[in-house]
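queue> pop job 88
queue> type: inverse folding (structure -> sequence)
queue> payload:
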């Protein structure tokens, strides 16, 4: 870790990215109970593997309370925070609250789907989710740009997961849900991409070692806590032809776009690094 690593963006730069998000996010509301044709449910069209895939991603989405607490740790708000840091962190919080609402809707609609499709007993499902949800969710100590990088990769990986699953699912209501969640995750990814671009604009090549370090340590949420996570994830990868490493290339695109705009051309190092990880 570099001692001179950039701590944060200027507050006005973060505010601009947050404002841009709300200009589009506020025009795309949906309701978990009324936006989908629940009366058209045909759960018999789901394969065993697809049912397992829905269950798996419900656990991932439902970890939100622990994940959201990370924002308070990395971007604290309180009297102990310097005013300039507080101004920046307040802008992050403005986005984070909205993001958390949207992610919680993902968890809830997937939980609702399992119940209405007869895939799970409602009381048992709540308890099963609680067993995993109450476990401590931690990321290693991250600097702000690393926190944003981690979430960028995680959001893109989840978007890819929903896209891939939608391609193989024939059950109509689940397809509607997956299409909506894909759109949401794409907007979230776009936000974090713009944050990373702003970091490169303001801090240049100093961010590259931090991006690389984040990728070295990257694990999807619950990888260390959910029972049989890796065995389960391998089965799901086969169902949807999915690999979370596909998200890494999208980080490269983000970095290259920002580097080109800033006339900084040192992105090949990151590309080579990602290639080594993906083909290890």
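queue> result:
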């Amino acid at each position: 870790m570099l001692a001179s690593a950039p701590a944060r963006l200027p507050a006005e730069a973060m505010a601009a990215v947050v404002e841009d998000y709300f200009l589009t996010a506020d025009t795309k509301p949906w309701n978990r109970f009324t936006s989908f044709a629940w009366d058209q449910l045909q759960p018999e069209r789901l394969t065993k593997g697809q049912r397992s895939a829905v269950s798996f991603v419900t656990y991932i989405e439902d970890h939100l309370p622990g994940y959201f607490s990370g924002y308070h740790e990395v971007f604290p708000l309180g009297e102990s925070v310097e005013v300039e840091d507080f101004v920046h962190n307040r802008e992050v919080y403005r986005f984070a609250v909205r993001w958390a609402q949207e992610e919680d809707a993902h968890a809830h609609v997937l939980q609702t789907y399992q119940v209405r499709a007869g895939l799970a007993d409602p009381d048992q499902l709540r308890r099963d989710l609680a067993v995993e949800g109450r476990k401590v969710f931690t990321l290693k100590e991250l600097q702000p740009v690393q926190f944003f990088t981690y979430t960028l990769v995680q959001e893109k990986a989840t978007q890819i997961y929903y896209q891939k699953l939608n391609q193989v699912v024939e059950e109509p209501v689940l397809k509607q849900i997956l299409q909506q969640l894909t759109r949401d995750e794409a907007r979230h990814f776009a936000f974090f991409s713009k944050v990373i671009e702003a970091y490169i604009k303001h801090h240049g090549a100093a961010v590259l070692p931090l991006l690389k370090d984040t990728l070295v340590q990257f694990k999807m949420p619950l990888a260390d806590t959910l029972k049989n996570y890796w065995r389960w994830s391998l089965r799901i990868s086969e169902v949807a032809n999915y690999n979370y490493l596909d998200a890494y290339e999208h980080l490269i695109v983000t970095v290259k776009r920002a580097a080109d705009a800033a006339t900084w051309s040192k992105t090949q190092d990151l590309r080579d690094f990602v290639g080594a990880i993906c083909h290890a």
